[in-house]
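Worked example 2:
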Amino acid sequence: MCADTGFARKYRLVKPAEFKHVFQQAGKSGDKALLILARRNALGYARLGLAVSIKAAKTAVERNRIKRVTRESFRHHRPALGGMDFIVTGRAGLSTKTNRELRASLERHWLSLSNAKNSDNSD
């Protein structure tokens, strides 16, 4: 498998300072189940951080499913997202969403945030 199609460490937000940077001044896209925060980075490629709490999904199995679906969606959309850092957070009741509903929601958010990024570049 080509390393560029996976979810390598360079595509992750791992340090608390990286998360803090996004939280400080983030663009937002959200619905009843998800909130995605985004902020431009200087790296030229997108990175993802996940913050799915017990409030969003009670069991570890559910939280892991949500994170797995989110990572897969991000991996597919990463080329179109450019130089942005994203943090995906879950809201209460997220665990009731099916994988299909979760993917559709993520797709809408990626599209919304990439359009916002592109409109910022046109200035």
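The first helix runs from residue 16 to 24. The radius of gyration is 14 Å.
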